[in-house]
Amino acid sequence: MIANSSLLEKYSKPGPRYTSYPTAPHFAETFGNAEWLDELQSTQNTGRDLSLYCHIPFCDTLCYYCGCNMVATRNYNRATQYLGYLESEIDRIAAVTSPERAVRQLHWGGGTPTFLHPDDIRRLFSHLSSRFHIAADAEIGCEMDPRELTREHVRALVESGFNRLSLGVQDLDARVQETVNRVQPEAMIREVNGWMRELGVKSINMDLMVGLPEQSVASFSHTLESVIDMAPDRLAIFSYAHVPWMKKNQKLIPENRLPDLQTRIELQQLILQRLTEAGYVYIGMDHYARPDDELVLAQRNRTLYRNFQGYTTHKNCDIYAFGVSAISQTDQVYVQNAKHLPTWQQRVSEGLAIERGLRISTEDRLRRDAILRIMCDLELDLDALSADWSIDAPSHFATALAELQPMQEDGLVELTASRIQVTETGRLFLRNIAMCFDAYLQDSTVETPRYSRTI
Ligand code: SF4
Question: Is the full-model pTM beyond 0.85?
Fold first, then answer.
């Protein structure tokens, strides 16, 4: 399945990634600490398990393409101080959490979680496990930056119980690395990969990025071949979103060195072709995995889910997220912590640090269900949707179905009276297909946030 260039060009437009619906720009400042505390207290007996997230914002240096909430520093005292606040925040949430609730998923992201020294990795993990009941078979993951990483970091993670490690590779080409200020030679990546294998990490993910300056089909082919040779279990290949009006550091990216649309399209085609040939299954969006990976099995069994951490096998979990800018969710509420580090610290010293949030409506939940089924199952059963939500789905979603007609003509979906089926080609356009169900994009009274491009 290789989509042709004209389709990729036609559907390359700004759109959400749907790690939530409604998306974060629709959260409101009227939903704060008091409302979140009420929600936490009233949802302890829902039978839902937990997914915990910790955000560690620090990085040694700034990658020019960075779109994350991060702080570049060489001052480790800042991390030590941060950990103190993080532990207070964890304690406050743990105090209102029923001890019976099992943590099925735990993830550290950033920034760079491995900015923490190995002793502090152990300290934070043992703090979390002393406050929450982490299930024996929990999926415990951490993002890692190979630069500044030591074998001791990996050992601290593995001995703490981390079983899914994700390495930021992005691109192995020296020119690309220099242009984006992230120099990490291939030998360094191979060494870290060797430590992970030697220490028995169950699942290794590598993140790559396309659309970076100086990237060409030839240079990225080399990166892909080397990465395939390192045999990660999963690959996430993100498209660089160049939004210098939102991310000031991206002004350091030389725009005239960015690949043009045609090259970006060729890169997408290359990735799909090479990874499929190498035996990886394309799950959707940016994610590939080996055929026996849990994500692939979950997609086959219709139990795949999508949340702020991307695709997951853990459906029906409430997410409790700690740290600056972190986003939590229950079935009906989303909240985000303060995004500015000093503000987050100040608020945590007084209580919780919620800056904005949203209690979603029944219509939002119905639309989220439709969007998630498309993004995860690659199909939407309209009869099941009608039964689950006591609606007549074809008439409720008449506008969406009309928008899908041209996509059917382009071969992205197959429509029948009771089903929307994403085709092999359509997998590359999941965001575009899901956008047909997004009421906020269709409401002209709501200002549309500036999203990254779908291709
Ligand atoms: S390591 Fe990640 S979070 Fe840190 S600057 Fe680079 S891209 Fe941003």
Answer: yes
